[in-house]
Amino acid sequence: AGIEGEKKDAFYLSAPENYHYLNQSGCVADKTINDAEAFKEVITAMEVMQFTTEEVRDVLRLLAGILHLGNIEFITAGGAQVSFKTALNRSAELLGLDSTQLTEALTQRSMILRG
What we know:
Elements: H1 5-10, H2 35-48, H3 53-69, E1 74-75, E2 81-82, H4 85-95, H5 99-107
Antiparallel strand pairs: 1-2
């Protein structure tokens, strides 16, 4: 909501209501909160704490990747499969992961047996 322009495009971000993690309450906007100003305050706080430009970008990439992870849907017929590849591919790219390996990590069950 507070991020704009090139950064918004670079992280494949759109309106907050398009993200599963953000729209669970049914309220993605609050007229008493200025999202753009709050975002600037967070960025300023990171700069005060001497985050480099690259570190700020990495934090934003991580958060955007997590938002996109929340939009991945799974189909369980015949084993787990990812049904929404765009969200998976965007998550993988933003998190610096291989999309095939991410798919496997999210759909493969593993068990640790003692003994």
